[in-house]
Write the structure tokens for this entry.
Amino acid sequence: MDKFVINGGKKLNGKIRVEGSKNAALPIIASTILFKKGVTVLKNIPPLRDILTIKKVLEYIGAVIDYDPKKMTMAIDCSKINENVAPYELMRQMRASFLVLGPLLARMGEARVSLPGGCTLGPRPVDYHIQGFRILGAEISEDAGYIIARAKRLKGSTVYFDRPSHTGTENILFGAVTAAGTTKIINAACDPEVIDVADFLNKAGAKIKGAGTATIIVEGVRSLKPVEHRVTGDRLVAGTYMCGAAITGGRIEISGFIPDYLTMVSSKLHEMGCLIEARKASMTITGPKKPKPVRVVTFPYPGYPTDLLPCIMAVTTVSSGTSRIKETVFEDRFSHMMELRRLGADVNVALNEATVNGVNKLKGASVMASEIRGGAGLTLACLAAAGKSELLRVYHIDRGYSRLEEKLSTLGADIKRVN
């Protein structure tokens, strides 16, 4: 397995451009199952492990895909799909693979999809997806770890979510765009990635209104046509670099994304002493000599994103006081806490809230990533730590960050990948 070897204490300075959003690209790729003819061309598709996984899932069911990771362009032809089973050996690698359920059901009239795997963040049930498809008229059963869904043609109805779920919202969208009649999704996820998915489907002929709000209305159409689409920039990767500037006291110009999608993150880093200059599609952030403590509560968009909790938590470990960070989305989001302690952080967690007492300096140590975002947070902590650190299991980080060590090196970090 690869690991990162990091000599900390260097400021991050320079310019960096983020690639396409993983959380937008994955559902958009899955949705092409709905296209019975022609070739869809997607641009700005990041070369990530998760992208290769969803590519394998589609190829397994019969899609023909040509992906150029250097140009980040993917051409998808789903005209020859002849399989409605998504197997466990592929599905276990990430939770987002469950997004094939909606388009497979809508196209084939039946889908047999393995329950998904992915990051260890505690229970992340697919109940919202299943209940939503039942409301749209599907018969759902479970057999040997597979969800089996059947419906000759889904029928429009009103689907309510107890709380916003971006993958749940997207999956129901995929079923609704070709359903008979009108579907209304109440308490839908408002994430920018959901907007990008809806924009893509509308280009292809879908009739979706309200994406980006809590109520989405979909008028079913008979079929979709292939289109060309450029995936939005990854705000979560951009947020990671923002926290990198904050924790090292550096200055980074970040481009390729929409800063308005990170207003809550910008607000919290500003509270910590960062100077931020936001433009239409780029941002410059300058970190303070010593970050101030902060209080953060994660919440579905437009709240503070749970995926960037580990990054701002890393910044608080070297702050000038006591910070409190509360998680309201995933119960095991603090799985990286013990690894931060190995670096000398003063962190305690009780009832899904972390209390972080800033220390003068973190110290290099051997630590281990257990999921994507926790691994990114640990990388930042190692960059700020005095001395040498080793970060193991970086394959988790590779799921969401393309060649992170190379990107950080261009900003002045002393980091290298070792097999």
Notes: DSSP finds 14 helices and 24 strands in the chain. The longest helix spans residues 235-248. The CA atoms of residues 134 and 140 lie 7 Å apart. The two ends are 6 Å apart (CA to CA).
